[in-house]
Amino acid sequence: MDTLATLLAAHREGRRTPSETVRETYRKIADHHDSAIFITLRPEAELLAEAAALEAAGAGDLPLYGIPVAIKDNIDVAGVPTTAACPEFAYVPVADATVVARLRAAGALVIGKTNLDQFATGLVGTRSPYGIPRNAFNAKLVPGGSSSGSASAVSAGIVPIALGTDTAGSGRVPAMLQNIVGVKPSLGLVPNTGLVPACRTLDCISVFALTVDDAMAALEVMAGFDPSDAYSRDLPLGTLGSLKRTPRLGFLPEDQREFFGDVDAAAAYEAALARFRDLGAELVPFDYAPFAECARLLYEGPWVTERWIAAQPLLTTHPDAVHPVTRAITEPGG
Prior knowledge:
The protein has 334 residues and is α/β, with parallel strands linked by helices. It has helices spanning 4-12, 18-32, 44-56, 98-105, 148-155, 173-178, 212-222, 263-278, 289-300, 303-317, 324-330, and strands at 38-41, 68-72, 109-114, 161-166, 181-183, 204-209, 248-251, 282-285. The strands form two sheets. A six-stranded mixed beta sheet has the order 1-3-2-4-6-5, with helices on both faces. A two-stranded parallel sheet has the order 7-8. Helix 2 packs antiparallel against helix 3 (44-56).
């Protein structure tokens, strides 16, 4: 698969043009045969025109020169519908989200908007009227959510970078299920202007990539204070470190593991622990109970009200337009 780094090098060295990469990207989409990955795919001709403009401008020094990216469909792209996976909610923004504008200014080419669990509520990737994206790593598994389409687009090798969001795991669970990198930035590091809120005080725009270095390259472009976002903070991005020679990995004691009767999952967990031990890792048990209590606040506590506020106009006027599971999660906050 083409990573961001390999594509960028090919563009800069003249072994490949951004226009050729655009054509290859649309060929991959056609060959992959999964219409549920994208809710809206921009016309190839538009992308070819943008790629040609980059080439004519001699923009090879841009950090994302000619890199195709996909955007989760709760993040605004000017002129492209934002649906949050709810047709009745859809609108067409006149401006890019701050992060999209920064990606474009860095030379990225936005090919389309990806599918998601409706209103970014869910971790499975199956709650969308636009279908269920296929898990590109293992078709027997759900794609993960809520950023299902973005994860599938990267895992399938269609794009090297895609944006998701992460409030309670939506940018990491799909990455785990599809064998790619998912990064949730620190709160406020990446501006949320132009994002449909799920839980405003916890939302983060996240990155999916094939490598950690690629994710870092995208974050370097996206991060930075934005005065139009009340939650934006002027934070240092930091640098990549290296793993210790003997990494320490936490694991759950048996009495805190929940597999809901799935004996295969329980066996896979034990096998993974054994594999990590064989690789030389130090395994350390930890008490998961405080984390579970914190997680419950997202669905049983005050943060549910934030979810309700975000969806309240639609819940009030067109409640049947909202997925039944999303309604069941959100309505108690009203």
